[in-house]
Amino acid sequence: MSSPRSVASLSHGTGKRTLQQQRSEAVQEEKKKQPWAVGKNAALFAFFVVVLPTVMILAGVSHTPAAAATRLGWTMLGTFTARGAVQKRAEENNRCDTSVGRWVREPSVPAYTAATCPTLPDSKNCRKYGKDPGHLYWRWRPDGGCDLPRPSPARFLAAVRGKRLAFIGDSLARNQMESLLCLLSQAEAPTKVSADDDGVREWRFPAHGFTLMAITTRFLARAEEVLGGDGRPTASFDVHLDAPDPVWASRHLRELDYAVFSTGNWFFRVNYFSEGGRRVACSGCSGDADAGELADFGVAHAVRRVVRAALEATARCGSCKRGLVAFVRTYTPSHFEHGSWFDGGYCNRTRPLEEDEAPSWDQSIGWDVRRAQIEEVTSARKTTTTTRFEVLDVTKAMMLRADGHPGRHYDKRSAGGGANDCLHWCIPGPIDMWNDVLLHKIAETASPPATNLR
Ligand SMILES: *[C@@H]1O[C@H](CO)[C@@H](O)[C@H](O)[C@H]1NC(C)=O
């Protein structure tokens, strides 16, 4: 699996403008999250500029020029909205936006080590295979003065006591689970519940009644390998955009308190898309004989459709727990340079990219994928009051971490000879930050403690 469009190989752009764009985007998102704020201002406007002057005129104060009343209205409206802005700024400070920020050097010890994490898989154990440990000593500092503290394992476990959390997605979802297992192992040793038969892994922390799962689904939707003329599977998939993968949707969703959806990297190959059982589009297929008249959706649009279907299925899930919180973890790119997974690409940088070393990050397909994912969460929020939808927006942070992959320093037994892994993340490593954000959000959305569990 590979996505050769590495951020480092993109053409140049202007970093300053793009940051501003991103900020205004964040402001837009904030507005969407708080429609009441806009509605309240509109109501105040209507009252002071339209209703109040009208009432004054009708009440016989007709000698008062309407203009004066209107002026009064404007003044009072100004006072109210200024107060609203102050209050809103305070709220924004409380709701720390962890999606924008920068990596700062932090000469402290990593969150954990291989010695404290017996479950750490060899393929991500970068130190063991000789990787320079430089990638461990960076911390993501969000802009705007808010802090993203590293959660203590005990605090995390206390917050999820009695709950069940699943990472639902491809091998990067599993990667996040592996990071969380290592983090939590310091407080309690997990026990493995299920073998990896149907792509579902399950661990329990018995003293806390907490269950952690990784459910493998490459596309979130049902997908089959496309067979070639010789009857053998090709590299392409037929993805059923409107059909959530039953491995999570039918079997496990109803058990969950927290679902963390992610997808993206498998869309960067030639794929075909079906709706209602009929092929309707493709991605990357132009010039392909099989494609015929099919429209090329492109990666971001295809991801949008499967995320929408997943969130709709979650919102509609009648048998799901009340208070289910569904997260979408946004797309993270690979960092192959001078090639891809299959033809000698590598990633041997030893420090995070500076913003101007990843100049057009916000014009990349990966950024479009992120935007589509966030927009779908925003729309899903409007459809339900029982499920909470949240975003783990890690795209920008991870775009800069070209140094955080196993690269050539991973277990050669599984490498099939020579390939570099510039897609998954070392643990310990920058992926630990995804779980810092996760706990931050879980604490933020904390519902009253569940009483019916355990
Ligand atoms: C990365 O690998 C390339 C090709 O082998 C080499 O030229 C370069 O010096 C390496 N960079 C680092 C930082 O090791």
From TrEMBL:
Residues 95-144 form the Trichome birefringence-like N-terminal domain. It is found in: Golgi apparatus membrane. Residues 1-25 have a biased composition (Polar residues). GO terms for molecular function: xylan O-acetyltransferase activity. Residues 148-440 form the Trichome birefringence-like C-terminal domain. The chain crosses the membrane at residues 42-61. InterPro entries: TBL, TBL_C, TBL_N. Its main location: Golgi. It is a single-pass type II membrane protein. Residues 1-33 are annotated as: Disordered. Pfam families: PC-Esterase (PF13839), PMR5N (PF14416). GO terms for cellular component: Golgi membrane. The keyword Glycoprotein applies. Keywords: Disulfide bond, Glycoprotein, Golgi apparatus, Membrane, Signal-anchor, Transferase, Transmembrane, Transmembrane helix. Belongs to the PC-esterase family. TBL subfamily. This is Uncharacterized protein. It comes from Oryza meridionalis.
